[in-house]
Fold:
Amino acid sequence: MRFLNSVFSSKQVRRKFPIQAALHIVLDGALIGVLTTVAIMSSVALHSQYLWTKSFTKLETTRDLNRRILESTSILESYLLKNQKLSRYLVPTKAEDLIYVDRPEPEETNKLFNVTFKTRLLERISSFPIKSGY
Structure:
């Protein structure tokens, strides 16, 4: 309040034009409020811009990594297909040539897994070399 009152230091001006002096005080307060609002909104806008830039940079990095993964996968696939004998026997196919098989029941899958696990375990144990003697 002292700051606003110091603008009109002359008491004669206040006495002579009280409405004009009050109007100046109100307008000075309004201008300070507008400047404060502009400063706050500018800081919010700049912070939002910073967050957007940070997110966009992460998105670009993710896209670049995704592109690199796709490229490396295609390179690996082409290398494997060139070096495998099986690739000679592969033929192009169409969607009409595909056969769709129903998904097995979970109980059957568990039984099959247990049987194959047991079989593999027994094969592994039986393939160990036997040391003769004590």
Notes: The chain has a mean pLDDT of 82. Residues 2-95 form one domain.
